[in-house]
Amino acid sequence: xxxxxxxxxxxxxxxxxxxxxxxxxxxxxxxxxxxxxxxxxxxxxxxxxxxxxxxxxxxxxxxxxxxxxxxxxxxxxxxxxxxxxxxxxxxxxxxxxxxxxxxxxxxxxxxxxxxxxxxxxxxxxxxxxxxxxxxxxxxxxxxxxxxxxxxxxxxxx
Length: 157
What we know:
- By secondary structure, the protein is mostly helical.
- The chain has ten helices and no strands.
- The chain is globular, with a radius of gyration of 15 Å.
């Protein structure tokens, strides 16, 4: 199986796991599966444009990642934010559009405001930084989230 097949397989595994067990399932086996699949996606998208384009064109994956941010498991939230950070870094036009349409910005800012672990927060803020550079709509989505501006100012200080 080549890299393309591996990417598609990981997307399918994450999607099927969420369909079968629900997005907020706290079973340790589901969490571990999701973490490892997301770690692999993080590694396969680091600096690799074609892989990022493929994943962003897989609409169910972006929805899965958005829902996965809501997990109570900080490790899973952090690695999910890392996937989104990589997908949004130097993204091509179609990837930027897909990320914007998926509303991951709204999920990221909402979860970032609830996050207390520094490493998780850094991953989320990095993803938000990349996504906010894509469009005025993403910037507006961040700014319009209740309490987001206050949170960002507080975080900066």
